[in-house]
Amino acid sequence: xxxxxxxxxxxxxxxxxxxxxxxIKIKIDQLAYAPASVTAHVGDTVEWKNADFIAxxxxxxxxRFDVMIxxxxxxxxxxxxxxxxPYTCRFHPNMKGELQVM
Amino acid sequence: xxxxKTCAAFAAFLLAGGSAGAQGAKPTDPQIAxxxxxxxxxDIEAAKLALGKSKNKEVIAFAKDMVRDHTAVNQxxxxxxxxxxxxxxxxxxxxxxxxxxxxxxxxxxxxRGPAFDKAYAENEVAYHKTxxxxxxxxxxxxxxxxxxxxxxxxxxxxxxxxxxHAEHLAEAxx
Lengths: 102, 174
Hints:
Distance between the termini of chain B: 14 Å
Oligomer: heterodimer
CATH topology of chain A: Immunoglobulin-like
Helix content of chain B: over 70%
Radius of gyration of chain A: 15 Å
Largest sheet of chain B: none
Largest interface: A-B, 13 and 15 residues
Strand content of chain B: under 5%
Number of strands of chain A: 9
Largest sheet of chain A: 5 strands, mixed
Structural class of chain B: mainly alpha
CATH class of chain B: Mainly Alpha
CATH architecture of chain A: Sandwich
Number of domains of chain B: 1
Shape of chain B: elongated
Number of helices of chain B: 6
Order of helices and strands of chain B: HHHHHH
CATH class of chain A: Mainly Beta
CATH superfamily of chain B: Ferritin, core subunit, four-helix bundle
Order of helices and strands of chain A: HEEEEEEEEE
CATH superfamily of chain A: Cupredoxins -  blue copper proteins
Number of domains of chain A: 1
């Protein structure tokens, strides 16, 4: 156990991705992001998993990010800035979500 | 404008309980499957026309979205009717849809450049409104099989997204 912690710390110092923050999972089902609003920290990664049979995106309303999420696939975004980021799907603008980054 | 009028006339026909089979009778599942599939094919064909004619980046992106999503929905529909051992059945509503769509395509194909883009976007708004109205008031409530009902309900959410997307596009082209 102690060994594992030391290794993790070493990986962090080396800037390994494994030491980045948490992975926040958002499911897309029936054209809805669930949860629609998440709170996360800089360094966390958001992962959208698309359970629909059509492709979606997670696209910042303010043009900060644009993540493709293929049908049945996943899309990821590493959070680098603090702020509130409303987003939508470019293909289906009736889908709405929000990332609160602290 | 003519295209929108045609659509509105079709909407009135559908919403007034346009006959799928016998006058006044509810459409059967095989008829509903045929109507939904036909509606998808029509939008794919309109999108293909746009892909051949438009030079507008946004219009092209939208048309590609329509081809991709409606193809995916129709593939699901085909897989479902196969699983349920249902043969989609042609009917008056499907025939009317197809006929109106032919007329709309003929009108659209005479237009060029920004006039085409604008007419295509407006037609997509009107068309999705019509189809979504038909799904909400007729096709979903009248479908008997729960899996067919579910697929139509998912389709409605997708097409409501398309309608909103088309509204943004039409607004941007004004």
